[in-house]
Amino acid sequence: MEFAALVAVSLIIGALIILVAVAVSKQKAKESEQEEQNKAAEESSVKASAAKKQKAQQRPRKEKPQQHTFSHPLLASSLKSHNAAVTCLDFSSNGKYLASCADDRTVRIWSTKDFLLRDHKCLRANIEYDHATLVRFSPDSRAFITWLGNGETIRIFKMTKKDDGTFIFKAAPEDFPQKHKGVVVDMAIADTGKFIMTASVDTNIIIWDLKGEVLASINTNQMTNSHAAVSPCGRFVAACGFTPDVKVWEVCFAKTGEFKEVTRAFDLKGHSAGVYSFDFSNDSRRMVTVSKDGTWKLWDTDVEYKKQQDPYLLRTVPCRVSEGSRIALSPDGRAVAVSNGRDLYMYSASSGELEEEFHNVHSEDITDLRFDINNRFLVSSGDRAIRVFHNVTGYRAAIADMQTQLKKSTNAGVKQRLQQQITDAQTTLDAITNTQNN
After folding, report:
1. pLDDT tens track for 124-178
2. From the CA atom positions of the chain, what is the Rg in Å?
3. Biased-composition ranges for Basic residues (predicted)?
């Protein structure tokens, strides 16, 4: 009996040992399997990461959008330092510089004497924490003002020339106060240096002194303003918009230099639809307008407006237009340029004849259009590039005018001077057209 009990106990103990061994074996097998799975997962993750890295390395870099290409025999040069769309252009009164501003938060100053060179260097002024939508040179060409797109105000920059001929740009300590409620569409400084004009789309025009004090406000009563400017003589402010006319005011100052008042001078009436844009000749005696009605007009504004004399309409010319069309009159009043979307058209002011066409000048609609003070070039903006064209229309018109004067002149000295000017202009024109023909 005792022996049987001993055998039973031994069998139970052995069974327990076998069960424990089996359990341990299964646990080790399970752990080994889990370890292999983890190892496989880790290897798979490493492979996936390597594949992803390799794929990323093989992925082509995102390229910058290509610059719009444009070529034409009358294209003198393309200025391409801006990294974003150029919104505004302005020539200095001394004819030496062109200022441009863009959405890249910079203002660029270009030398006009480099326009015909292969390389076009420029000086850069940074607009801290903002960007300029408009830029204008001061009358002495030693400063420029900008309209800040975000700050919605004027910031003045002084230009200090260094010994090497380059400039240092220093912003004024304070910006002008915020006064406009609508988006500002134009800005200008009077050549007299007496005032600054800003115009917003909501029909409001503000006349400022150079320290930021408001001298006067004008309501144009045109529903919207599309364009505004100060005449080169510095006496008049003009604006156009939804209505089919251009309204002109005189900004009056006392002999002592103190501001007096703003009075209505005259209107340009004759279009049958809203006026998109206008421009003055350098002596302020001629104006051109372009309208939604599909015409541009040339006006004689050298009138006695204080005696209620109205400007004379000299010419009406059909043209292609679109929303936002711009017009520019050469300083000597001989050439007219009109934009239609991305295209440009150049006309003779004396005959109204279309002389040159430039298509797809920019990748976007043209935003600004200006002749240089010496009547040699026409510049346009519409994307990152600034196009510079030879003003052959102006050269032809100048030669024709001087030949007429030469026939009428009886003074030997005057005839000699005119003949030399004709020869010089013809030589320049021949050089340009020969390049065009080649």
Report:
1. 999 999 999 999 999 999 999 999 999 999 999 999 888 877 789 999 999 999 9
2. 36
3. 50-62
- Residues 214, 177: Cα–Cα separation, whole Å: 9
Per the CB < 8 A criterion, the answer to whether 214 and 202 are in contact is no
Token pair for residue 383?
A: 């994307």
Q: Which domain holds residue 403?
A: 399-435
C-alpha to C-alpha distance for 22 and 157, rounded to whole angstroms? 89
If asked whether residues 326 and 419 sit together in one domain, one would say no
Q: β-pairing, 354-358 with 245-253?
A: unpaired
**pTM for this prediction:** 0.83
Instruction: For residues 236 and 306, give the distance between their C-alpha atoms in angstroms, rounded to a whole number.
Output: 13
The amino acid at residue 15 is A
94 part of a folded domain: yes
* Residue 240, domain member (yes or no): yes
Rounded to whole angstroms, what are the CA distances from 145 to 215, 338, 373, 423? 18, 26, 19, 40
Over the stretch 195-242, which tens digit does the pLDDT of each residue have?
Answer: 999 999 999 999 999 999 999 999 999 889 999 999 999 999 999 999
Instruction: Count how many domains the chain has.
Output: 2
- Token reading at 253: 């100052």
**Token couple for 62:** 């995102």
